[in-house]
Write a structure and sequence with these properties.
Elements lengths: L3 H14 L3 E7 L2 E7 L7 H4 L13 H20 L8 E6 L4 E6 L7 H6 L1
Length: 118
């Protein structure tokens, strides 16, 4: 999915069905990933209340591949119960400087999506 309106719809569906949502996004040399577990973690709308302004931007295939690999690893870890997940953690990859950062997240008590579906 290349836009936040569609991601927000998937977020709502995941919350409603109570299924995990493995979010990943890329922009140029930057990427991010988070594992959302309804009822346990902040949802996508908690983390990004409005989403970015729609625009066209370049995507580097190697960054998309890296973030996709992280998402696949998260799925395997979720289903096998092996290892810690990116629950309430936003992993950010900076390809320009070849570094990763993790930002701790919290559920937004005023999140409109969580209020409806949880």
């Amino acid at each position: 999915m290349d836009n936040f309106p569609t991601r927000f719809n998937l977020n709502k569906a995941a919350l409603k069905k109570k299924i995990p949502f493995l979010h990943g996004a890329v922009r140029g040399l930057m990427g991010q990933a988070i594992t959302i577990v309804p009822g346990e973690t902040a949802c996508l709308r908690c983390v990004f209340p409005e989403g970015p302004t729609p625009e066209k931007f370049p995507i580097l295939g190697s960054v998309a591949g890296l973030i996709g690999t992280i998402q696949a690893t998260e799925a395997v870890k979720y289903f096998t119960g092996i290892g810690g997940l990116l629950k309430n953690k936003l992993l950010i990859y900076d390809g320009k400087y070849l570094c990763f950062d993790i930002i701790e997240l919290k559920t937004n008590p005023n999140c409109p999506d969580c209020k409806i579906y949880l």
